[in-house]
Design a protein that fits this description.
single chain; mainly alpha; Farnesyl Diphosphate Synthase
């Protein structure tokens, strides 16, 4: 459900375009070159993660007033883990340094699972891991994607992009399922559809930002098919080839989101509204992209606060007045 990409774990209309200077300060305090850590109390660690979420609140819609307070705490720690990993990857300045920092972060993760957490994020996360019996795999999988971003900047096929999303997006949705205490295969497949769909929406929003970072997440085979050359990226051209390409990618994203939509009714009641907001938020961003005729070079399509409020009210109403159910199509694993 959450997206781990270029401003990690984000609702699709949000994302940080500028480096976070506060992260540089946090890295000095808690990074690999920091002085030997003093004992961090669980209370301090929980407060640190909560404040990190509030610092990037637009990027973590699921931790909202819609979630009961006892459930916000574990989600804060999950977000903080994702946020730190993303910043280590994107704020390092060069791939070699980013890879070294991500290796250090994985060491911290494994120390956490071995009961030796010292970093405030992992002190808080250790509580979440114990309480909800979360395996290490989704946390490690996320680091696979962050490392891949340091080594790979182009994707040949859409299937290769989906494989990237398997690591960059799907683990976060599955972590939410663990916190909701409802992780099982059928739900996980639906959550993967939503997570991957949101990731693709994020790619479409961030074509310009990703190009500035030296990355293209639109598959090369699709670029060739529609006649959009890499030189056109450099010129930031929004031509007919680009519009056709973006329309095709948007259709893929919408299909994924709609295949994941039945997850809403498979979730505990306290998570239903947030999950439906993720899906319909992604669909709303796709509509925004279509409204500007796919010209994401000129401006990044986002939802205004008023549009988010209207979307929330509409989703709340639909949950309480559902339409007649349609036959469900079982999705394939992404």
């Amino acid at each position: 459900m959450l997206v781990a990409h270029s401003g990690q774990a984000s609702f699709p209309e949000s994302g940080d375009a500028m480096p976070d200077r506060r992260f540089a300060r946090d890295l000095e305090l808690y990074g690999p070159l920091a002085p030997p850590p003093k004992r961090v109390s669980p209370r301090f660690a929980r407060r640190y993660c909560r404040n990190l979420v509030r610092r990037h609140y637009e990027n973590f819609t699921v931790v909202s007033l819609l979630i009961p307070p006892p459930l916000r705490r574990p989600l804060y720690s999950v977000y903080a883990y994702c946020r730190w990993a993303d910043d280590l990857a994107d704020e390092a300045g060069d791939p070699a340094k980013a890879l070294a920092l991500l290796d250090w972060w994985e060491t911290q993760l494994r120390d956490c699972y071995d009961g030796r957490a010292t970093h405030p994020v992992f002190v808080a996360l250790a509580e979440t891991i114990r309480q909800y019996a979360i395996p290490i795999d989704p946390f490690v999988d996320l680091l696979v994607a962050f490392r891949q971003d340091q080594r790979q900047t182009r994707y040949e096929t859409f299937d290769q992009l989906l494989e990237y999303c398997r690591y960059s997006a799907n683990p976060v949705g599955r972590l939410v399922l663990y916190v909701a205490q409802c992780h099982e295969p059928k739900r996980a497949i639906r959550a993967d559809c939503i997570s991957t769909g949101l990731q693709v929406v994020n790619f479409l929003q961030d074509v310009a930002l990703d190009w500035d970072r030296g990355r293209i997440y639109l598959p090369r085979m699709h670029l060739l098919h529609y006649g959009y050359e890499e030189a056109m990226f450099a010129a930031r051209q929004s031509n007919e080839a680009f519009r056709r390409l973006m329309a095709a990618e948007a259709a893929e994203a919408e299909g994924l989101l709609r295949r994941g939509l039945p997850l809403v009714k498979m979730m505990p009641p306290e998570f239903e509204l947030d999950v439906t907001l993720f899906v319909h938020g992604g669909l709303a961003i796709l509509e925004k992209i279509r409204q500007v005729d796919y010209d994401v070079w000129t401006r990044r399509p986002v939802l205004s606060r008023l549009e988010k409020l209207r979307l929330g009210i509409r989703c709340w109403w639909q949950l309480r007045h559902p339409p007649e159910p349609e036959p469900e199509e079982e999705p394939e694993e992404t």
